[in-house]
Design goal:
229 residues; mainly alpha; 2 strands; 71% helix; flat
Length: 229
C-alpha cells in the first residue's frame, strides 16, 4: 500500500500547492519521506541534466533510503518513455539521452533487466530511429523461425533436467533490439551474422544453501548437450 500511495502522489508536491507537511498529516511520516526523496530527485535532474551522470547516481543512491523512491522513479520514467511519441523531437532526444545515462544503469544495478532492456530500446527508438526500425523489422521477419529454433534447442535440455528431477523453469527470449545493435556495431557485422539473437534462461527451484551446486549441475547438463564457447 505504501508503494501504491507514493506512486499516486509522486508528483503532487512538485506540481501543486500541497506541502510535505500536508502529505505527512494525511498519510504519515514514511509516505512523506518517500515523496520528499522523489521531489529531491526531480530537482537534481532538472538542474544537472544527464551530463554528471555518475555524480547524480551517487546522490540518488544516498537519497534513496527507501528503495521504493528509485522504483517509483524508474516506473515513472518507463511510462514517460512509452508515451513520448507526441513530444517535440529535441525533447525526445534529451529525455532519451538522460534515460540511457541515468536510468538504464540504475535499473541494471537493481537487477531489473526487463525494465533496463525496454528503456534502452525505447531510448534507441528516438536517438537512432532508422536503425531501430531496421533491426525491429528484421526481428519480426525472423520471429517464426527463431521460435522454432528456440523450441528445438530447449527440448533436450528440458528432457534431461526432468530425468534428473530438477524443479525448474526454462524459457527462451529474443535479445533486445539495442543489444543486437551493439553486437552489430562492435563486430562490424550485418544483422544476419549476429549469432546470439536469443537467450535461454533456466531458473532452478531449490533451497538457498543448495543453489550454487544445483546451478552448476544444470550448467553441466547444458554443456553435455551443447559445446560451450
Amino acid at each position: 500500500p505504501t508503494g501504491v500511495i507514493c506512486a499516486l502522489l509522486h508528483d503532487v508536491v512538485e506540481d501543486t500547492e500541497v506541502s510535505l507537511d500536508e502529505i505527512e498529516r494525511d498519510f504519515g511520516k514514511k509516505i512523506r519521506e518517500i515523496i520528499d526523496g522523489l521531489t529531491k530527485i526531480s530537482v537534481i535532474f532538472d538542474v544537472h541534466g544527464y551530463v554528471q551522470a555518475e555524480n547524480i547516481r551517487k546522490i540518488l543512491l544516498t537519497l534513496a533510503k527507501d528503495v521504493r523512491v528509485i522504483l517509483i522513479k524508474l516506473a515513472d520514467r518507463l511510462h514517460n518513455m512509452r508515451t513520448m511519441d507526441s513530444m517535440p523531437r529535441n525533447k525526445q532526444i534529451k529525455i532519451s539521452h538522460e534515460t540511457t545515462y541515468l536510468y538504464v544503469p540504475l535499473a541494471h544495478r537493481l537487477g531489473l533487466y526487463n525494465i533496463k532492456s525496454e528503456l534502452e530500446d525505447l531510448a534507441m527508438k528516438y536517438t537512432e530511429p532508422k536503425i531501430y526500425k531496421q533491426v525491429s523489422d528484421k526481428l519480426a521477419e525472423t520471429k517464426k523461425d527463431r521460435n522454432q529454433y528456440i523450441a528445438q534447442f530447449i527440448k533436450p535440455i528440458k528432457e534431461e533436467l526432468n530425468n534428473q528431477h530438477f524443479g525448474f523453469e526454462i524459457f527462451g527470449r529474443p535479445k533486445s533490439i539495442s543489444s543486437i545493435w551493439r553486437k552489430m556495431k562492435e563486430q562490424n557485422i550485418p544483422f544476419e551474422q549476429v549469432m546470439d539473437k536469443f537467450a535461454i534462461r533456466i531458473i532452478v527451484k531449490t533451497i538457498p544453501e543448495a543453489e550454487k551446486a544445483e546451478c552448476w549441475r544444470a550448467y553441466s547438463i547444458v554443456t553435455d548437450i551443447y559445446r560451450p564457447n
